[in-house]
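Inverse folding, one chain.
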């Protein structure tokens, strides 16, 4: 019986030793895993910052292009509006000249009629 107790005691000590070894291994793996997670998180945050900077720059460039195009369109619209106003004034002048020419021709025609009579 003392031998059986000694065997059980030895088995218990071996089991406790294995448990302690497993706990230490789990702790090391947990520390290693946490470090990997931290490294990966830092790496991804760095990449995220790079992408954010890249897309911010692209957005600013596109806004500049948009503003330049909008300015060009406004200038063209102003030019078209000015041309339209100029054409309308020219049409009015031509219509007025047409009326004057018709009046002169009418006077000439009337004068010719009165001379013929």
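Residues assigned per position:
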């Amino acid at each position: 019986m003392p031998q059986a107790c000694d065997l059980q005691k030895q088995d218990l000590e071996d089991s406790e030793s294995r448990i302690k070894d497993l706990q230490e291994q789990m702790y090391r793996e947990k520390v290693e895993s946490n470090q990997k997670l931290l490294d990966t998180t830092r790496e991804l945050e760095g990449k995220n910052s790079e992408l954010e900077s890249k897309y911010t720059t692209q957005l600013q460039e596109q806004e500049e292009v948009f503003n330049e195009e909008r300015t060009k369109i406004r200038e063209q619209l102003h030019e078209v509006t000015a041309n339209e106003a100029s054409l309308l004034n020219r049409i009015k002048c031509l219509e007025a000249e047409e009326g004057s020419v018709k009046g002169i021709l009418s006077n000439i025609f009337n004068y010719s009629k009165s001379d013929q009579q």
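The chain is about 100% helix and 0% strand. The chain has one domain: 1-117.
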